[in-house]
Specification:
63% helix, 2 domains, Nucleotide Exchange Factor Grpe, Chain A, domain 2, 16% strand, Protein GrpE
């Protein structure tokens, strides 16, 4: 009986070792499967994160292109603004010179030549989009007019422009210089 017991014991030990080996192999396969699943989930999360980054970069680039285009359009639209602003005092002086009433015939022909140059100058400014701001009789607009005096005049409503002291100009839709005006109180 001892021998059987030893044989049985030996068989049982062999089976125990085999089952432990099988369990270890099974655990390894399970661990490998779990590791593969975790790696796949991590890869999918990384892919989703990269896709989001690409979409944000694409949106940033689209916004940059739009802003650049708008800046170019604005620069082209107002390209002559600095030159025109520098010429506004010249226009004022031209207008003052044209107000002089000459007596001599020679001075009259000089004045006619100045008027022709002035009209040509005005036409050139108009072709660039420069417009004179309307004033007398208009209602005061702080965006277009600069009130330097308030007077009491009959025949005018309150806040209506009575007199223009200096012309104002716009370039397209931008005010270059507001008109200096007297406003009825």
């Amino acid at each position: 009986m001892n021998e059987l017991t030893e044989k049985e014991t030996q068989t049982m030990e062999e089976e125990t070792v085999k089952s432990e080996e099988l369990e270890t192999e099974g655990n390894g396969e399970v661990e490998e499967t779990v590791t593969e699943i975790i790696e796949e989930e991590n890869s999918q999360a990384e892919i989703a994160e990269l896709n989001n980054r690409i979409l944000r970069i694409q949106a940033d680039y689209d916004n940059f292109r739009r802003r650049s285009r708008e800046e170019k359009e604005a620069a082209a639209k107002y390209r002559s603004q600095t030159v025109i602003e520098a010429l506004l005092p010249v226009i004022d002086n031209f207008e003052r010179a044209l107000l002089v009433k000459p007596e001599a015939e020679e001075a009259k022909s000089l004045l006619q030549g100045m008027e022709m140059v002035y009209r040509q100058f005005q036409d050139t400014l108009k072709s660039e989009g420069v417009e004179v701001i309307e004033t007398v009789g208009q209602m005061f607009d702080p965006h277009l007019h600069q009130a330097v005096m308030q007077v009491e005049e009959e025949g005018y409503e309150s806040n209506q422009i009575v007199e223009e002291l200096q012309k104002g100009y716009t370039l397209k839709d931008r005010v270059l210089r507001p008109s200096m005006v007297k406003v009825n109180a």
